[in-house]
Amino acid sequence: LPRHVQIIREIDKRYLEAYLELGNVYLITEEYSKAKENYIKALDLDPAYPEVNFALGEIDMRAGNYGDAISSYEKAIKLDSVNLKYYYQLGMAYNGIKDSVNTIKYR
Predict the structure, then answer these.
(1) Residue 88's CB: how many other CB atoms inside 10 A?
(2) CB 50 within 8 A of CB 83
(3) 31 three-class SS
(4) Which residues contact 72 (CB under 8 A, 6 or more apart)?
(5) Could you tell me which residues come within 8 angstroms of residue 67 by beta carbon, excluding any fewer than 6 positions away?
(6) Which DSSP letter does residue 94 get?
(7) What Rg value do the Cα atoms of the chain yield, rounded?
(8) 3-state secondary structure at position 30
(9) Cα–Cα distance between 61 and 58 in angstroms, integer?
(10) What is the 3-state composition of the chain as percent helix, strand, coil, each rounded to the nearest 5?
(11) Is 22 buried (19+), middle (13-18) or exposed (0-12) by CB count in 10 A?
């Protein structure tokens, strides 16, 4: 756990970016339950933060939970309709459920 992130979180328990960063660290180290826990804390602080919804989709993609990933990516897109990586990953999630029409539409 990066010390600077830990310090920030201790200083301000409501600092959304710290929870997002912690979640990212745990995602990279494949500690998915800890990543999800931090992303949910971030989402509790700001439900309209698209990157958190996207990150939750990433966890579901890695777990093969494509339906949940689709839901998270769609939420991210509703909040930020210009971020192309959200659309790409949505297409990948549709590919996971063998929905070729939507795979092509979003990739």
Answers:
(1) 13
(2) yes
(3) coil
(4) 53, 54, 56, 57, 60
(5) 97
(6) H
(7) 14
(8) coil
(9) 5
(10) 80, 0, 20
(11) buried
Per-residue pLDDT tens digits for 19-53: 898 899 999 999 999 999 999 999 988 889 999 99
Would you give the distance in Å from CA 73 to the centre of its chain? 8
CB neighbours of 19 closer than 8 A, spacing ≥ 6?
9, 38, 39, 41, 42, 45
Evaluated on CA atoms 100, 75, 63, 21, the torsion sign reads positive
Q: Write down the residue that tokens 């912690």 correspond to.
A: 22
Q: Model's pTM, two decimal places?
A: 0.84
- pLDDT tens-digit readout, 47-68: 899 999 999 999 999 999 999 9
Cα gap 101→61, rounded to integer Å: 19
